[in-house]
Design a protein that fits this description.
Length: 309
């Protein structure tokens, strides 16, 4: 997949061009409906589909005090969009200058960049431009002016609920990962980079990888049996999410510690994607490191059994 970083780079995409535009946090089934429509319509006219998204999340710039915890960072989102079969992605930098762009100017820039722009696909309630003044009605009018059609993809309803990233965040936050998976159309995962830790797990006989998570929305604190995607392969292990209450040097910040089964390689600096298979127990404080070591051994056995079943 080719990733573009400026609207002007749309000129490198052979037309006619069909755009799918949205924030796409989570790349859930509603987002997939918008992207699939663009892929289908582009194929019908022998053109190219381009997904257009924004970094950072617009609310981070417009209302940072109420910004949501992200389901997917931009690198994670790019992976998920690529997996949908998208060949062209435009990531627009969303800053205060871009936020002040009138909606007409934004669409004009897209139309000018494409050769030609045939269609824009968006969600049914999409708004855009300065003050969120742009909507589907304005997009339709701008389409008539610039020679493209607009498609407002209907909402996706699952189990009687209109699908949204907010619904998924709530499901993850309360630990209902099966429900989150139904809304996502895939399993909830956390993507992160392995960073150096205090090596305590190694000293206790259970080496752990500290994962600097790109996601911001975590499931509840506790211990989970997990599967891990690494370099196209699969590993299994056990994860603790929490504040490490037994460790005297703990900072009180939530961390994700991963013990991989039957693995001895070097993974510092590598990206891992963690899929949560089963919740094993809540996080708790132990009276000693010996008690903690014994519990980790039990957790590892329970995780292996859960994954085998």
């Amino acid at each position: 997949m080719k990733t573009l970083r400026a609207i002007d780079e749309l000129a490198t995409v052979p037309g006619p061009v069909v755009l799918a535009i949205g924030v796409f946090d989570g790349v859930h089934l509603g987002h997939k409906a918008v992207i699939d429509r663009a892929l289908t319509d582009a194929a019908a006219v022998g053109g190219a589909a381009v997904v257009v998204t924004f970094d950072p999340h617009p609310v981070r710039v417009l209302r940072p005090e109420s910004a949501p915890r992200l389901l997917t960072s931009t690198p994670h989102k790019i992976r998920l969009i690529r997996d949908l079969g998208v060949e062209q992605l435009l990531v627009v930098r969303f800053d205060s200058d871009f936020a002040s762009t009138p909606p007409e100017q934004f669409i004009e820039a897209l139309a000018r960049g494409c050769h030609p722009l045939r269609e824009i696909c968006v969600g049914h309630e999409w708004s855009f431009g300065k003050g969120r003044a742009g909507n589907l009605k304005l997009l339709e009018a701008l389409g008539e002016k610039h020679g493209f059609t607009e498609v407002g993809v209907p909402a996706v309803e699952i189990e009687g609920e209109i699908l949204s990233s907010t619904l998924i965040r709530r499901a993850v936050e309360r630990g209902d990962l099966p429900h989150a998976a139904r809304l996502l159309g895939r399993e909830f995962t956390i993507l992160g980079t392995v960073v150096a830790g205090d090596q305590l797990g190694r000293k206790m006989g259970f080496p752990t990888a500290n994962l600097s998570a790109h996601n911001e929305q975590f499931p509840p604190n506790g211990v989970y049996a997990v599967e891990v995607a690494r370099n196209g392969g699969k590993l299994s292990g056990v994860v603790n999410i929490g504040v490490r209450p037994t460790i005297a040097s703990a900072t009180g910040e939530r961390v994700l510690e991963l013990h991989l089964f039957d693995f001895t390689g070097e993974i510092y600096g590598q990206d891992l994607e963690v899929t949560f298979r089963r919740f094993l127990r809540p996080e708790r404080k132990f009276e000693s490191l010996d008690q903690l070591r014994a519990q980790i051994s039990e957790d590892a056995q329970a995780a292996r059994a859960a994954l085998e079943s």
